[in-house]
Amino acid sequence: MTVTERGFAMPGIGRREALGAAGVAACGLALAGCGASGEGQAAAVPGIKGQVIAKTADVPVGGGVVVQKWKIVVTQPSEGVYKAYSAVCTHRGCAVGSPKEGVMTCPCHGSEFSAADGKAVKGPASAPLTAYQVKVEGDGIVVV
Q1: Could you tell me if residue 118 is inside a domain?
Q2: Which of 42, 85, 102, 105 has the most crowded CB, counting CB atoms within 10 A?
Q3: Residue 34: how many CB atoms within 10 A of its CB?
Q4: pLDDT by residue (tens digit) across 54-84?
Q5: Is residue 114 in some structural domain?
Q6: Chain segment 75-124, per-residue pLDDT in tens
Q7: Within a domain: 89
């Protein structure tokens, strides 16, 4: 039996144990999306497979664009080579910006990711952005 603040006996666990368990549960939920190093991978965007996510004309060579609708960054690291990554930073989930000088930067904590392969090149993030396989169909870039 546990005694409450008003002196009533209650079956079950005590206040301290309940708060501790709640803290562990909250921490566990936070870590579920974070991985062992405190970083998480964005889940694949539902319904994106087969969708045209950008037009080839909108993605400059050596640069790229953030497609807000899908939370995806589409890059063209070299002529005719298109890549797509989740725009969700693997550190804390902020949206990365469009590539500049081959790097996508997260405005929240300064993590940087390579536009060529999505790998983290500057922390605090260390996990790469989630990559999507894409192909060109006509003038569209499609997730396969």
Answers
A1: yes
A2: 85
A3: 17
A4: 999 999 999 999 999 989 999 999 999 999 9
A5: yes
A6: 999 999 999 999 999 999 999 999 999 999 999 999 999 999 999 999 99
A7: yes
Overall number of domains in the chain: 2
Assess whether 62 and 24 both reside in one domain: no
Helix (H) or strand (E) holding 107: none
Handedness of CA 103, 54, 137, 88 (dihedral sign): positive
Which pLDDT score, from 0 to 100, does residue 11 have?
54
Full residue range of the structural domain in which residue 10 is found: 2-32
Return the structure tokens found at 61: 């060579």
Q: How far apart are CA 78 and CA 81, in angstroms?
A: 5
Residue 116, beta-bridge partner list: none
Residues 28, 60, single domain; the answer is no
Q: Outline where DSSP puts E strands in the chain.
A: 2-3, 9-10, 52-55, 64-67, 72-78, 81-86, 103-105, 112-114, 120-122, 131-132, 134-137, 140-143
